[in-house]
Design a protein that fits this description.
about 35% strand, four-stranded antiparallel beta sheet
């Protein structure tokens, strides 16, 4: 299966379990790897035969900006479920990164893979 990637999508949102995290937006970064057969689109140059990653990015931005989840795990699950329901993606790999200050400036990152239902 071919892959379509959408990387480094940065979105500001409310996320976190601590009171101070609920008071200010944080920047999350998303990377997506989506299974897709690109041959029909390549043969015809017809965007309707591929995944419109621009539309997917807009969908992600709107969903994340409107969210106020506490855990990045919950956000990742909800976002993946919504994308798989809205777009005909056979399989999705989502990486979600959040800045944290554990020892200096660090990044917490989770990766989930979900097949279409």
């Amino acid at each position: 299966m071919d892959k379509i990637f959408l990387n480094d999508l940065s979105i500001d949102t409310i996320i976190g379990i601590y009171d101070w995290e609920r008071q200010t937006q944080q920047t999350l970064t998303f990377d997506l790897e989506m299974d897709w057969d690109i041959q029909p689109a390549a043969a015809t140059e017809d965007i309707s035969k591929t995944l419109d990653y621009g539309a997917i990015a807009q969908t992600i931005v709107a969903f994340v900006k409107a969210s106020e989840y506490q855990l990045i795990e919950t956000l990742a699950e909800a976002l993946s479920a919504m994308l798989l329901a809205q777009y005909p993606i056979p399989k999705l790999k989502l990486t979600l990164s959040k800045p944290v200050a554990l020892h200096g400036q660090n990044t917490a990152r989770i990766v989930i893979e979900r097949p279409r239902g």
